[in-house]
């Protein structure tokens, strides 16, 4: 990576350090979830590992006071930039009453929260896409003109919801940014068995708006492309499809064994491009991070994760008598 590229795209030194901090926080929270799962304390984990640069770089391009996020289950980095905390994630993993996503009712990774401007997610993949398009249409009708950030995996870009949402947004030039995190697998299905076209970004032409493919391990490039897309959206020029090419460094979920469908050599090769490592190198070359400040930051983030774990483990469960709340109307 060339030195100080961040300044050329309008990011300050403080902002790129902040990006790295969010990436590290997302990674360390994720690692903690796996430990808790293997210790039998939390039932399920769905990971962001390998996709933090894409998620954080993309989320930095939005106005957190105005814009909306309709994320998918891996988006720990994005939801944290929009305001969710390590405590929130741990509360959700332990299914505690204070979980802001669903009060301990949904599986982990089903993010949501009015105060964070994050739309509640649903389990069928890609349902968030038409919702995002609807929020953009509502913003046009009310004059709020917010941009909407929606994300999904490349496998999910085969779902009807993606195509219907993209078509409608293209026709009405709505301010939606479709963000595909192409991590090369849909559970055990590799990319070449998912798409016959060259890239997910190519699909945009069919809906009459630009499609851009970007290195998802590079948060500065992801930010640059997303910022252009957000600026276009807010200028009334319509949607953009951005494909961030990443790699899922861990199994699909805590219930998956990826050794049965992908070669260890491939995973080891991808680990060399782990964005936590490559972005730390960039920051060091730019003179913004040293071994000492990196280890201080790492300790600081680890302490946040420890505190969040402790807090969430002690927190109360939802009251049993509230089980049917929001399920049946009376
Ligand atoms: C409509 C629907 N079909 C199938 C599933 C089961 N499922 C959950 S995640 C997933 C794979 C999605 O792959 P991709 O979109 O590439 O996202 P990734 O998990 O790789 O980030 C599938 C098939 C689902 N949740 N919803
Ligand atoms: Mg995928």
TrEMBL record:
Instruction: Determine if Magnesium is one of this entry's keywords.
Output: no
Reaction equation(s) it catalyzes: N(6)-[(R)-lipoyl]-L-lysyl-[protein] + 3-methyl-2-oxobutanoate + H(+) = N(6)-[(R)-S(8)-2-methylpropanoyldihydrolipoyl]-L-lysyl-[protein] + CO2
Class of enzymatic activity (EC top level): oxidoreductase
Domain Dehydrogenase E1 component intervals = 20-321
Pfam family of this protein, just one? E1_dh
Give an example GO molecular function. Answer: branched-chain 2-oxo acid dehydrogenase activity
Q: Which domain of life is it from?
A: Bacteria
Q: Which cofactor does it need?
A: thiamine diphosphate
Any one GO biological process: branched-chain amino acid catabolic process
Q: What is its EC number?
A: 1.2.4.4
Task: Please give the function described in this protein's UniProt entry.
Answer: The branched-chain alpha-keto dehydrogenase complex catalyzes the overall conversion of alpha-keto acids to acyl-CoA and CO(2). It contains multiple copies of three enzymatic components: branched-chain alpha-keto acid decarboxylase (E1), lipoamide acyltransferase (E2) and lipoamide dehydrogenase (E3).
Name the family the entry cites: Belongs to the BCKDHA family.
What is the protein's given name? 2-oxoisovalerate dehydrogenase subunit alpha
